[in-house]
Amino acid sequence: MSRRRETAQRAPALRRRVLLLGVLCAAGVVLARTAHLTLREGVEWAERAEQQQEQGLALPAPRGTIYDRNGIPLAASRDVYRIAVAPREVVDRERVISALTDAGVSLQEARRATDVKRRWVVLRGRFGAAVREALDGVQGVHFETVQQRFYPHGTIALELLGRVNAEGTALGGLELELDEVLRGEPGRATVRRDARGRPIPGAMVRVLEPKPGKDVYLTLDAELQSIADEALRVAIDSTRAAGGEFLLLDPRNGDVLAAASRNRDGSARNWRAVTEPYEPGSTIKPFLVASLLAAGRARMTDSVYAEQGHWTYLGRTISDVHGYGWLTVHEALQKSSNVALAKLAMRLDPATQYQYLRDFGFGSPTAIEYPSESGGLLRAPRRWSKQSQPSLAIGYEISVTPLQMALAYAALANGGELLAPRLVREVRTRDGRVQESYERTVVRRVIPEEVAEQLRAALIDVVEGGTGRQAALGPFVVAGKTGTARIAENGRYVPGAYTASFAGFFPADDPQLVFLAKVDEPKGAYYGGATAAPITRSALEAALAAHHAPFDRRTIAAEPAPLPETPSIPPATSQHDVARTLESRGPFVLALNESSAGQPAASAVEVDVPDVVGSPLRDAVRTLHAAGVRVQVDGAGVVSATWPAAGTTVTQGTLVRVLARPEGR
Fold first, then answer.
1. CA 120, CA 203: separation in Å to the nearest integer?
2. Residue among 77, 282, 336, 337 flagged as catalytic
3. Contacts of 419 (CB under 8 A, 6+ apart)
4. Which tens digit of pLDDT belongs to each residue from 461-487?
5. What does residue 608 show for φ and ψ, rounded to 5 degrees?
6. Residue 282 annotated in active site
7. CATH of the domain at 588
8. How many domains, in total, are found in the chain?
């Protein structure tokens, strides 16, 4: 009995010891696991906890601005705001609803955003500074600053610039080509989250500030770009064309000053001046003549028989619009004789003809700063047929881009040097420091200067008395060549479809502008002289009146024959004051109508002076020229007075003096 009692007394003590041992072992395991988690896995679990409580957020960098050559912004970024509402924090619900509806948010969405059943509502769209101001400080409304790309001049130059979408992705043009320069480096921020992983409103900490993108300065001139764009629009409308291109270059350094590309509806398209080659037709002819002269195979005074307009060579007949007999090389180019120039091409061997075309830049990309540039088509002589030489002489079996053609004409204008085109002038940091600049680059000398001078003389005659007469600017000398070519699709020429073009330079004696106008599928008159040449005339008239045109206006103004002494107009408040205070001379005279040089026309046609007061200067000059009068300009900006006054009857050729002042003064 006593043993049983002792055993019964020991059992609880044993169980307590076993239980204590179990507790100690469990505690040891927990401590060991805790030590393992703390010492071995502590960093990993801390990171996981931080990830649950914080969310990383990329801060977009301010994108660089694209400027024209004069510092006028063409593409820029501005701060806009993404708005989120925490309905349970809103105190004045009606005020928030009213402010949101005033900002363009629908009433339904505004009420949903302030519904207390919801915890966090992000509104669709982005909002401007005015909305931010109206809601700033309102409890429950939170803002996130985002960048929005915008183009201050609308569609002007958009074909070159490209676009950036709402997410900041560059979609084309210079925005894409220069994206690495413009986009900068994004920063980093963290957003606190609650136990359920939802962002805590307003709890954002900026960890790393973004680095802004760099600014890019182009060679474009915003005013000339606007002029080119408007001239092309008018031409497309008047000819009912499918589209067109217009280029202005500086032949002295290769700068692209203006580049417009439009569809039939007037909308901008991609910059087809570098992406879509075309058969150039007669605009290629000066380069055949340059090759003949430079290779010593012909002189301008050599004669060739033009076969009275029809020449059959190896079973193919080449024709002229008009029949000619004997022509000098100079006359053949002036009259754009297909027959004469095709026959002259046979004086060159295929390798020489090909090499000069290559040297002028045809058949290879220009390497301009633009994505997807085409090099055109110029086949090697081994792939030529027996018809290739005369075909190439008149602009077929070759395709060129408008930019290639303009650069080739620039070589004729500058004395024979082919230049690399320059679209980007400088790259600067946000504080204005120049990080990179792009200098004038000579690709090669193509022809001697004396050959270029002979070509310039011939191209002047093309405008003065040949196919380019509709581009003539009266006493101002223009050199150029027209071209008309059939359009091919899928290897066949489309009946009745033509490309009309006109290329050249101005002023011919001291070239400062190279131009190329191209019109696709004009209706009615389709020759280059009738459709493309007038674009050039219109654009050059406006360019002469432009405020910041990148050429020496005084040199151009001095080129015409001297006019009688004519006073300019000092500031005046009325036409009476203008007449009373006329001074002895003005800065320059624009006499652009062919009948306006010198004295009034013998027919003494009477016209009323148009009312141009309040008009931009270049529009006023164009209107006055259309009326048949000469124009003397004093000042820049908006026209404030004319003498004679608007409505005065004068004879065509009369000098009208125009006073202009900066807008707003």
1. 13
2. 282
3. 251, 253, 254, 407, 410, 411, 440, 441, 442, 443
4. 888 776 656 656 566 788 999 888 888
5. -95, 135
6. yes
7. 3.30.10.20
8. 4
